[in-house]
Amino acid sequence: MTIQAGIGQQAAAAFGTLYAEVQQFYAHQMQLLDLGESQRWAETFTEDATFDVPTLPEPVRGRPGLVAATSRTAAQLAEAGQRHRHFIGMFDVSERPDGTVDVRSYAIVYASVIGGDSQVHRVCVCEDVLVRVEGALQVATRRVTRDDLA
Amino acid sequence: MTIQAGIGQQAAAAFGTLYAEVQQFYAHQMQLLDLGESQRWAETFTEDATFDVPTLPEPVRGRPGLVAATSRTAAQLAEAGQRHRHFIGMFDVSERPDGTVDVRSYAIVYASVIGGDSQVHRVCVCEDVLVRVEGALQVATRRVTRDDLA
Amino acid sequence: MTIQAGIGQQAAAAFGTLYAEVQQFYAHQMQLLDLGESQRWAETFTEDATFDVPTLPEPVRGRPGLVAATSRTAAQLAEAGQRHRHFIGMFDVSERPDGTVDVRSYAIVYASVIGGDSQVHRVCVCEDVLVRVEGALQVATRRVTRDDLA
After folding, report:
1. pLDDT of residue A4
2. Whole-number mean pLDDT of chain A?
3. Is-contact C12 C20, C-beta < 8 A?
């Protein structure tokens, strides 16, 4: 490990700390979404976050819109007797000098019919900008693309 | 990184260390399961661990029961010419003051027919309590739910 | 955390740093592959790396062969109107005394038809030997097996 000695080793350790924090952030955030905890989920975004996903006709801005969109989806799934799980990973993380964090990741959405089968529903790429608000990470902008769309 | 200075930074670094340890623990544990290494897999649980999964008629307690259950599954898969892989991730990790670690994660089980196709078999949520035994993590209790079951 | 005090705690912290580095390495490498960035992808391997995967008739050695193989695959996918994503995880990581890193992981390949469905394409086990070149990790040898093949 001599190559990484001194400042290189400190930077590597700091990156490791950040990387774990990012993973924990996403795991918790996506679990909140899948639990239907729309309000708590929305609070992992900044107050004025932009959220651009293919399932919405246009980008949403701000938490009330986030809550509305995910509450609607949760209600539709419950009515259809289905469960969705968002499995996110493959985090490509880079930190800017000002502490803003760019994360490009893959998210697989699995759909299960209660009493039926489970299958892959969507394969997505998620590009986020994370910022710190009172020390904690929040999503400032999210842009999701789906592999099955042109 | 000024926000995280001092004690906050130390706590973040300690969490990063724990988070990596948890990930390594699960990767190794699930690989042992998929390799059919039932005995070594069972040793990643405490002596008196409880294991509550939908595939078993009732919760198992203790390593001999764990070995029996997974050996049976391994034999059935071999006979059917199939392979299963347990892909676990999405770790939501929190450590209690006494060092016990709560982990809620997602586990996707993939099934492949040798000479055939691969597909999603099960989508599961895994809730574990991990404890330290001689410094190493072990599962004290595991409760798994399946998305396709009510 | 008293059990991990002293040298144990330092080793755990060093492992955490390495584990994050390994995860970041694979996330970035696989994203380059899926983006069709064959040249930059090949540069994440050593100059004389060996690459042994079931899709190739025989193992490839060296970057020009890697670029050729992946460029061919990228062209075929584009022509077929499909996208592949390599979702790798489940890293079982161990470092040798000389700094070489052994990594056994699972890689799921998802295939999406543009304008159609997404599904699991392949379930693979990836066994790599990583080395450091000027401080950065590179793959020296990769051996991939597919669950659907005998």
Report:
1. 46
2. 95
3. no
Residues C64 and A86: their CA atoms lie apart, in Å, by 37
Chain B, 9-28: which have a CB under 8 Å from a chain C CB?
A: 13-14, 16-21, 23-24, 26-28
Rounded to an integer, what distance in angstroms lies between the CA atom of residue C138 and that of residue A53?
A: 34
Q: What number is the average pLDDT over the span A119-124? A: 98
In this prediction, residue B5 carries a pLDDT of 56
As for how many domains chain C has, the answer is 1
Average pLDDT over residues B98-105: 97
Per the DSSP assignment, residues forming a β-bridge with A101 are A95, A130
Residue-wise over A121-140: b if at least 16 C-beta within 10 A, else e? bbbbbbebbbbeeeeebbbb
Q: Residue C116 to residues A4, C59, C111: CA-CA distances in angstroms?
A: 47, 33, 10
Percent over 70 (pLDDT), chain C = 96
From chain B, pick out residues whose CB is under 8 angstroms from the CB of A23: 19, 91
Residues on chain C touching A120 (C-beta within 8 angstroms): 110, 118-120
CA B113 to chain CA centroid, Å, is: 24
| A84: three-class secondary structure by DSSP | strand
pLDDT digits (tens, 9 = 90+) for B28-84: 999 999 999 999 999 999 999 999 999 888 999 999 999 999 999 999 999 999 999
Look up the domain containing B136 and give its range.
2-146
What CATH number did the domain enclosing B20 receive?
3.10.450.50
Is pLDDT above 80 for C47? Answer: yes
CA atoms within 13 A on the CB side of B148: 16
Within chain B, how many helices (H) and strands (E) appear? 3, 6
B78, closest residue in chain C (CA to CA): C150
Q: Which residue has the tokens 């050996």?
A: B71
C-beta separation of B149 from B54 below 8 A: yes
